[in-house]
Amino acid sequence: MRTLSIITAAGVGAAVPAICVGQAVPSYGLDFVTVGAPGNRATIPEEVPLDPERRVGAVAYTYRIMRSEVTTAEWLNFVRAYEPYWTGTPHDPRLVGDYIYRTASGYELDPGTERWPTRMSWRMAAIYCNWLHNGRGSGPEAFASGAYDTSTFRTDPLGFPVEQATRSPGARFWIPSADEWAKAAFYDPHRYGPGQGGYWQWPDRGDEMMIGALPSQGGETNAFVGIPGSIWQMDVGSYPWAASPWGLLDISGGEREWGENARGSGTRIVLGSRIRGTTLAERVDGFYSSSSSDSIIVHGLRVASAVPTPAAPAVFSVIIVTIARRRRE
Q1: Which one, of 136, 171, 164, lies nearest residue 61 by Cα?
Q2: Hey, what CATH class is 18-328 in?
Q3: Distance from C-alpha of 115 to C-alpha of 124, rounded to nearest angstrom
Q4: Residue 254 half-sphere exposure toward CB, CA atoms < 13 A
Q5: CA-based nearest residue to 171, from 225, 216, 134
Q6: What sign for the dihedral angle of Cα 306, 309, 312, 313?
Q7: Per-residue burial over 214-235, b = 16 or more CB atoms within 10 Å of its CB, e = otherwise
Q8: Per-residue confidence of the chain (329 residues) as pLDDT tens digits?
Q9: Residue 247, Cβ density class (10 Å: 0-12 exposed, 13-18 middle, ≥19 buried)
Q10: Would you say 225 and 249 are in contact if contact means Cβ atoms under 8 Å apart?
C-alpha cells in the first residue's frame, strides 16, 4: 500500500511536551479538562482483546483536551472569521459541516443546532487550531501556521495529500494524537487500585458495552440503534453520567473525531463513533481512518491544548511589588 506523503516539522516527535512555559493559554470559552499522570504506560494485551498487538495511550506530559466536541455555534465563529480566505463554494461541507449555511448577510446556523457537534475536513480542523493558537485573529497569518503549516498542504502528482505530519513545536492548540485521545478516554490512574493505572474497555469507566438509548430512557450513549432515526443529532454532554476517568463526554456517540496521526494512503486516524453508529470504534482498541484533505469527508473535532502557565511578565511584576514593599518597611 502506498503511504501518505508527509512533511515533519523540525523537532516534532511522538512525545512533544505540551507545555508553553511562561505563556498564558486561553480557553476561548471552550470546556477543557486537564489530563495528568504524565509518563503513564500504554495498553497491555489483556486490555485490548480485539487487537492484542495495539499499544496506545502512553503520554509523557500533562495536557488539556476538550470535554466534548466542537459545537456548531463555536464553529460558526471560525467560519465567519475564515470566510475572506475560503476559496471553495460557500456551502462546501469541508468548511460549514451540516448545519451552517450562507445567506445574503453572511453565515448562519440552523436554530436549535447551537450545541450539536459539528463536522469539518481534517485540513479545516488544522486551520482552526492555527486560529486558536494565534488568538483568533482576523488576518491571513492567523490561519496560516502556528499549529500546522498550511504551506505544506498540497497534493502530489498521483493525487495523494502531502501535509505536515504532526503539530509544530510550541503549538498551543492541536488535533489530538491517538495516544492523547485514548489516554483521556480510557486511562484511569487507579484502574486496578490506588496508584495502579490501567485502561477501561469503554469510555464510561466500564468493561461492558454501553447502553444505546435516549437519556430519558436510561441510555449512556447515542451511538447505537436505540436512537430514533428522526433525531439527527443531540446536544453535546447529553449523557453527563457516562464520563471517562478524566471527565470526557461523548467519546461514544455524537460525531467521529479527527485524530492527528497519519495512517497511509492519504488518510488520518478517526476516533470514536457517531450517533446511531453500529461499530465498536468507541472501544479502546477500535480506530478508523479517513481521507485527510481534498475529499468531502468530514468528521468532528475535540481539540487538545497546552496547559496554561503563568505569564512571565505577571510573575516578574509580583517580584517587583514584593521588593518595593520590603524597601518601604
Answers
A1: 171
A2: alpha beta
A3: 20
A4: 32
A5: 134
A6: positive
A7: ebeeebbbbbbeebeeeeebbb
A8: 333 344 444 333 334 444 443 467 999 999 999 999 999 999 999 999 888 888 999 999 999 999 999 999 999 999 999 999 999 999 999 999 999 999 999 999 999 999 999 999 999 999 999 999 999 999 999 999 999 999 999 888 877 778 888 999 999 999 999 999 999 999 999 999 999 999 999 999 999 999 999 999 999 999 988 899 899 999 999 999 999 999 999 999 999 999 999 877 678 889 999 999 867 778 888 877 777 766 678 999 999 999 987 654 433 333 333 333 443 44
A9: middle
A10: no
- The cell numbers describing 193, all together, are 487500585
Q: How many CB atoms lie within 10 A of CB 195?
A: 8
Residue 166's CB is within 10 A of a number of other CB atoms, namely 22
Domain chopping of the chain, boundaries: 18-328
Instruction: Give whole-number Cα distances, 15 to 115, 176, 300, 306, in Å.
Output: 33, 12, 24, 13
Q: How far is CA 173 from CA 13, 92, 135, 259, in A?
A: 16, 24, 11, 13
Phi, psi of 126 (to 5 degrees): -65, -40
Distance CA 189, CA 166 (A): 27
Quick one: cell of 41? 504506560
